[in-house]
Amino acid sequence: MHRKIAIIVRDRQSEALRMSAGITFMDDSIELFFIDRVLENSETVEINLEIASEMEIVMYTNRPENADMICLPTPELQNKLLEYDHIIVY
Hints:
Blueprint: E1 4-9, H1 13-23, E2 29-34, H2 43-54, E3 58-61, E4 70-71, H3 74-81, E5 86-89
Helix pairs in contact: 1-2
């Protein structure tokens, strides 16, 4: 069964990115949401962000500082979350 999964990334950014890449092997649709958070500037986050990009995981944010992500206002992000079968908060 193909499921649509949203992952809301908060404090453990590197772990959330790594975990989301692992879930893609189950053939589910994964999308990441960086809400009210600026992406951490660390080597592990950068490596896992690169892997997520290579796996074509779509990433959303409401912070324009987060480069290479789709930036949407918070109300639009909230409405988008209604489209998912599962929401995981990290």
